[in-house]
Amino acid sequence: MATWFTADTHFGHTRIVNATFSTPRLAFSTIEEHDEALVANWNATVGPDDTVWHLGDFSYRCHPRRERALFDRLAGVKHLVRGNHDKSAAALPWASVRDVGQVVVDGQGIWLSHYSHRTWPRLHRGDLHLYGHSHGTLPGDSRSLDVGVDCWDYRPVSLAEIRGRMAASDTVPAELRTPAEG
Fold this sequence. Notes:
Elements: E1 3-6, H1 31-45, E2 51-54, H2 64-73, E3 77-81, E4 96-98, E5 100-105, E6 108-113, E7 128-131, E8 144-146, E9 157-158, H3 159-167
């Protein structure tokens, strides 16, 4: 059983495949193509007994029957950390629904939120912070990272992959810098 993280799937969001959207997904010509690709990528990654933390914006203006059908096709035990577009999605049969989360995966403390934080509980004790919302426009650092599908080939991501990307960052959060680092 593995644990995965994702955000900003935006199932049913017709404008997200449109070039006029602020961060369009131009790889897809229709929302149906988009949704099917995300379901396929999710299920190619996540096993039936795996845990998935979805950090918000599961869907947007998606018909409730379609939203439920998409949800039911996704593998794993699914948890939702609410985003700004999750009014209807919060009613789906998630294992849990919350506004923020604090979990431990493989001994690593992790603060989960749809939004990026400059600081978070247990930052100074080594906890990481995972977020969505920014669709890859907000750079991560050695302790905090966007796990949205826009950043990860439209699929959920593992803690090992997250740690790898964080380790490649030369940016240390301001709250952890010494005076000499500025």
